[in-house]
Amino acid sequence: MCVKSAVKYVYLFEEGSKDMRDLLGGKGAGLAEMKNLGLNVPPGFTISTAACIDFLDNRDFPEGMWEQAIEHLNKIEEETGKKFGDKKNPLLVSVRSGAAISMPGMMDTILNVGLNDETVKGLWESTDNERFAYDSYRRLIQMFGVVVLGIPYSDFDSAMTQIKKKHRKREDVDLTADEMREVIEEYKLVYRKNKQKFPQEPIEQLRLSVKAVFDSWNSERAKTYREIHKIPEDLGTAVSVVSMIFGNMGNDSATGVAFTRDPNTGNKMLFAEYLPNAQGEDVVAGIRTPKHIDDMKKSLPDAYSDLIKSAEVLEKHYKDMQDIEFTIEKGVFYLLQTRSGKRTARAAVKVAVDMVKEKLISREEALTRITPQTLDLLLHPQIKRKDDEVPAGTGLAASPGAAVGSIVFTSEKAVELTKQGKRIILVRPETTADDVRGMAVSEGFLTQKGGMTSHAAVVARAMGKPAVVGAEAITVDIREECVTIGDEVLREGDIITVDGTSGNFYLKKMEVEVPGIEQQTNELLEWADEVRKLGVRANANTPEEAKLARENGAEGIGLARTERMFLGTDRIPIMRAMIMSLTESERRFYLNQLLPMQISDFTEFFRTMEGYPVIIRLLDPPLHEFLPDKEEVMREIFDIKFKLSAAKEVRELDRLVNRLEELNKMLRTIKNLEEFNPMLGFRGCRLGLSYPEIYEMQVTAIIKAASRVIREGKKIYPEIMIPLVGHKNELSKLRERLETVAEKALDEQEIEYKFGTMIEIPRACVTADQIAETADFFSFGTNDLTQMTFGYSRDDAEGKFMAKYLEEGVLQNDPFTTVDRNGVGELMKMAVQKGRKTNRKLEIGICGEQGGDPETIEFCHEIGLDYVSASPFRIPVARLAAARAAIIPEKELQD
Ligand code: PEP
Ligand code: MG
Fold first, then answer.
1. Nearest C-alpha to atom 8 of ligand 1 is from which residue?
2. Please, which residues have CB less than 5 A from ligand 2, an ion?
3. Beta carbons of 395 and 503 less than 8 angstroms apart
4. For the residues 883-894, what does the mean pLDDT come to?
5. How far apart are CA 263 and CA 347, in angstroms?
6. Which residues, other chains included, contact 732 with Cβ-Cβ below 8 Å and sequence gap of 6+?
7. Helix H or strand E encompassing 754
8. Residue 779 CA: which ligand is closest?
9. Confidence band of 824 (pLDDT split at 50, 70, 90)
10. Does 847 qualify as catalytic in the annotation?
11. What's this model's pTM, rounded to 2 decimal places?
């Protein structure tokens, strides 16, 4: 009797569509969409994720689900003309997992369900292929044992090895039908040894298989994958029951995987591999090395042409690169899956840019498809090319980038050693889903077996880590924990370099470098520039950094920290002498020596940033930071006193006495400047107001450098920034004084310059309306603002409690990396509103470290800042993040 349930849990492929991913999973929705497009998909149905969630909660199928599944099974029987459990012409099905978000290889699939001691004979008869029938049956027994009953895979593997040894056969495919029957008997003994029984009843096989696939949602490896990829726990998996298509029915049958474009480079070409006379997961598992698709063009031309056509249809329809699984049974081509193909960062950018040119997608769509994290990966290191460097070997270039590290052979070891701070390269015969945790912590991978679509290759590309796979010249011995390459034997801890861009590997540490930006990336970034509202400037302290920032597309300098310019060996002695001066005139004497140096620094900045604003911040840190460490000085004093007692020569005595005097003076100065809380102490504008001559020298240098560059015919926009202002009078008094200095330095030249301030003290935010009375611009110093708002030391928090806070969920993000929206962010909002109320034209930006972080950039866009300023390396990412903030609705970005 058929019990009707009010809830529909089971859908024929014809009933679904690509928009039903949440309910039918990616695989189910893809199969349905392909069916609707008229492509050749085997008959089947999908049990929904809702049924899975219910099952996992109640440990039983929801009411009516099983009856609906049987009803749909009958429909497949009608469509195929076969019967499930029939002794003459049995219907066989695969039971496949598939969640709404792709988790490749993480959950289970069982093939050939429906075979037993009787139906196997029917399969033999109906296909006239005895060996094939028994091979299919032993595969089911093995897969069912491992997946449904949890029997160790190695038990089946040893049974197979034993039979192959007995009959002196190398490969599984060399075994005859009779020998396969022997394998089946051995497999049944494996069941017995594990106190299990293989169910002969096909319906029971199906029921237990569906349950097992539901349960695989909660397998350790699936949970780990979700944890790494931040996939919600409550989605559940759908189960697709698909009538079996056999790729292992002889040489006119095959199974394969195809990407509609090259997932490594993004080039527009079919990127496919196949295995003739093979079934199901053989390609993905990397057990046999697959053949190039060009061979299929010759051996199976009709199926090849169907593959090409289907790939075209699917890519045009989905408007994205597809990853397709197909099977050919006796020359007939079937599609078993389509999904958006995982790709390297480089390929992602190329595919998106090319698809805009092919008019498949818009520029904005291309920008939403490339995340800042993806772009970041593109700026990853590559091996420094040396023509005479011969690699130790070459495999397939599965995932680009270069990685250097110590060899480990197991995931457990990889996790353990990375906790000790080691950089690891995971070396395996091939990887499986169980290796994901180890892969997540490794720098890169090297495998002996597997193709471009093997597990290691797919996972590496998804994780953005370098990988060389299928390096057949190496032999990896997991038991002995060693890898042999010719005469060379390497063990755990030995250093290697893998180059996933070329496929080469080296048995030593190679030099790596960060590559420049490629043309397609530049194109994407130019589109980003057209849509973004936020300006992107750079934090740069040297002319070299400014140059790199320009090359990366910065539109000015948001912060030049002048204190970093005093650290050269020619400058530090003058700086120290200036700090230890006892009178203003003595101090001015040394400042006059620093003046030409500063003029030359600023000149270079202005020249590099011609046509763009340059914000130069006046001296900020406490002065004692420029003096040597107190303990070092005391140690030297002690040494000199010791040497003095032994010195005999007058010249030597004089030298020691002079040095001792100098050191004692330095020690007195250090002690004078010593503070209990230097971060809250004598720095920034407090220093500027106490020793005005320092800022006067800097402003003179800025104006003189600007005059010089203007005389060269260049347009420049200097902006002078006062740090650590918390009270409006700090800024107004300094501005008044420094403007007089600037006017004097102008030398009758017209220069447009601005005076502004860092906003990095909570009081400055609260009184921003008053401060804005004398400021032309604000720049949020979110390093200090975070420090002072939270009361966390910016130099100590990370090393002390921050990791614990993040682990325990006290904080969701490190506020020194991503601006804390609710606290610091509210203060920023207040400062923007109050500041602009007083001064409508107030230019506002951010120059704290968070300014290069995509989430912070999104926030800055929301609160209406004019620009963000980031380190030169982060400029491309900032440009993209700013564009995405302008085109993707706020809520979606935060999700
Ligand atoms: C800041 O405080 O955010 C800032 C940019 O200044 P500094 O890091 O130099 O203190
Ligand atoms: Mg600061």
1. 783
2. 760, 781, 784
3. yes
4. 80
5. 6
6. 773, 774
7. strand 754-759
8. 1
9. very high
10. yes
11. 0.79
